[in-house]
């Protein structure tokens, strides 16, 4: 079962990619994003996609241009995450057979992203929006819209966000820091998975 939790590994280095990927997958998180502002990011995506592409989805984050979409696709990424809503990047990602998770904050951005073909909406930064604002957005968005709060959200916040209409979460600093061991990442991942399952 694929849980709607995306691990955001900002700052990951290629030498740790496989170990961290294994720890996440072992804990039950099988959607893994490596942001482009990480060191030697294409090498990390390549390493994880080769090692775990049959059991996990490996994606790229902080993708801003169509050229970057091509580069990460060639490295093995299967989905694209952006901090912003760029309809050209969304459409291009879908044309290339990739999942698209653009960053949005307003109703205008939400509807523009959906019109361009986004698979899910990344509410960013979630800590500034808050659950009450998401609840208001939920009232006007199509029922089937998938919404992932990202930015300042961790397992302790799952319940209140899910009550407001969140379908999943992108987990960054609550799950991974560059100086953490793979074992520590695995323990944090298990905590996040347990929090998600407790809310089922």
UniProtKB/TrEMBL annotation:
Q: Which GO terms describe its molecular function?
A: lyase activity
The regions listed as transmembrane in this protein's record are none
Q: Give the record's pathway.
A: Carbohydrate acid metabolism
Q: Which Pfam families match?
A: Aldolase
Q: What family classification does the UniProt entry report for this protein?
A: Belongs to the KHG/KDPG aldolase family.
Alphabetized NCBIfam families for the sequence: PRK09140.1
What protein am I looking at? 2-dehydro-3-deoxy-6-phosphogalactonate aldolase
Q: Which organism is it from?
A: Tianweitania populi
């Amino acid at each position: 079962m694929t849980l709607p939790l995306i691990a955001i590994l900002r700052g990951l280095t290629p030498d740790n990619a496989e170990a961290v990927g294994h720890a996440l997958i072992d804990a039950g998180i099988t959607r893994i994003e490596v942001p482009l502002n990480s060191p030697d990011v294409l090498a990390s995506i390549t390493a994880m996609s080769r090692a775990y592409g049959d059991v996990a989805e490996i994606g790229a984050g902080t993708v801003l241009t169509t050229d970057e979409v091509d580069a990460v696709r060639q490295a093995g990424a299967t989905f694209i995450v952006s901090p912003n809503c760029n309809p050209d990047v969304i459409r291009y990602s879908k044309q290339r057979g990739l999942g698209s998770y653009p960053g949005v904050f307003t109703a205008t951005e939400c509807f523009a992203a959906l019109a361009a073909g986004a698979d899910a909406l990344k509410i960013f930064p979630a800590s500034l929006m808050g659950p009450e604002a998401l609840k208001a957005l939920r009232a006007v968005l199509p029922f089937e819209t998938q919404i992932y709060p990202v930015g300042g959200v961790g397992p302790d916040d799952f319940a209140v966000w899910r009550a407001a209409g969140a379908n999943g979460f992108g987990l960054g600093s609550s799950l991974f820091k560059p100086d953490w061991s793979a074992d520590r990442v695995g323990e944090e991942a298990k905590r996040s998975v347990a929090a998600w399952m407790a809310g089922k």
